[in-house]
Amino acid sequence: MASRIKRWAGRLLRPMMQSWLTQAKMSADLEAIGVRQGGYMLVHSSLSSLGFVPGSATAVVAALRDSMGLNGTLVLPSHSWLWMNKGAREFDVRRTPTCVGALPEFFRNQPSVVRSLHPTHSVAAIGPQAEPLIEGHERAETPCGRHTPYEKLLMEGGQILLLGVDLSRNTAFHTVEALANVPYLMEKQPQQFAITDRTGKKTTLRTFMHAPHVPRRFAQMEVQLLAERVVTEGRVGGARTLLIDGRKFIDFMVPLLCAEPDLLRDTPGG
Predict the structure, then answer these.
(1) CA–CA distance, 143 with 7 (Å, rounded to integer)
(2) E strands along 15-147, which residues?
(3) What is the tens place of the pLDDT at every residue in 73-111?
(4) pLDDT in tens, 152-178
(5) Residue at 180 is within a domain
(6) What residue numbers bound the domain in which 130 lies?
(7) Number of folded domains in the chain?
(8) Which residues sit opposite 91 in a β-bridge?
């Protein structure tokens, strides 16, 4: 009984002990860090890092959209690679859960949000360019490379917001790996998936997956990317936040990887 009361009291006191982040304050912090109106923004996030947010995920999504304006297209990862790496071979765009956190799972279920049909690295998006962004993702040769939402976003000069997470969560590193054709990225044989779209239509798809269990050194690139002004840093509420300029990122990283294909691979003794 005493332990139950202690847990209950902890839940009540936790919001009072954390810093409070209102929707308006979050919008102001996002503007201060350099989030642009219009265009695209891909957000990787840790909801808990922000502190106590009245309205929780609803308020965070509203602040993100407010910071981008009416012409902005907000994008979150809705990946399901974890389930597919464990052997699942069915992907239902309406029901397959994400494996990348609470905010993406909340976001993909919101009205007017659309989700791409890729079985391992889908994205969810809302805004005027959401449909063109996700179109054809399932037909791309790699999960994050040419003709995927990730390449489109980078090439169009979109931004990537790392909200309370570090560069190890930046999926766009897989995009530049694909564009540079690094040898360790992909499995050698395609896999077959059963795909269900938003209308309930089922199709069969053969596509390549990323090779599993390849350690990366994405986070170690931070110092260099900050020095080159590809990435800027700031704070949103309680969260240390990084903001990536998509076009600068692709223009800087692809030549580096073409010259040194193992740059991002965490090799023994490297």
Answers:
(1) 43
(2) 39-45, 72-77, 90-92, 114-115, 123-126
(3) 999 999 999 999 999 999 999 999 999 999 999 999 999
(4) 999 999 999 999 999 999 999 999 999
(5) yes
(6) 20-259
(7) 1
(8) 195
